[in-house]
Amino acid sequence: MMCLIFSFSGQDADTSSELSFQVGVKVFSVANDAFDKGWSMKRIEQLSEKSQYYIRKTAHFTEYFVLAVTVAFPLYVYGIRGIWLVILAGGYCIVFAGFDEYHQSFIDGRSPQKKDVLIDSCGVILGVIITRIIGWTGRMTVFRPLSNHKKPKESY
Questions:
Q1: Which helix or strand (DSSP H or E) is residue 117 part of?
Q2: Closest Cα partner for 104 from 125, 122, 120, 86?
Q3: Predicted local distance difference test score (pLDDT) of residue 143
Q4: From 17, 40, 48, 92, which residue has the greatest number of CB atoms within 10 Å?
């Protein structure tokens, strides 16, 4: 996930804009078909163009949400829980978000933005919280019987 985020950040402004535009066209085309809106391709492209800001910010949030889950879940499985999970997984992902924005300062047409780090951080926090909820729920329901098994006493 970190490589994917890094590669997106390494795109120049034109390439990044074109990718966001294409994502918008795809989203609005699916919405058009699903809700039978009857939009023309020109209208879909206009909607995509107007929605660029929101598409980009949603992408930031989503990328870092997924990153947080992929970092927090293994830590949770290996017994790091509670505040330590938030500090380790959350801190690691948020620091990566800061470095990623710094990385963008070297790319043509791109610049680091504190707002993006804030949006990334919100995705990270939600990802860690969701991981904790799913992990706790799993431990209390599905995997609870596994934790109650005791080794049989050896008799000689």
A1: helix 114-140
A2: 120
A3: 75
A4: 48
* 19 CB-contact burial (10 Å; exposed 0-12 / middle 13-18 / buried 19+): middle
Tokens of 140: 């209390």
Tokens of 115: 């707002």
CB 136 within 8 A of CB 42: no
Does pTM surpass 0.85? yes
pLDDT for res 153: 63
Angstrom distance (rounded) from CA 127 to CA 1: 13
The packing angle between helices 13-35 and 41-50, to 10°, is: 130
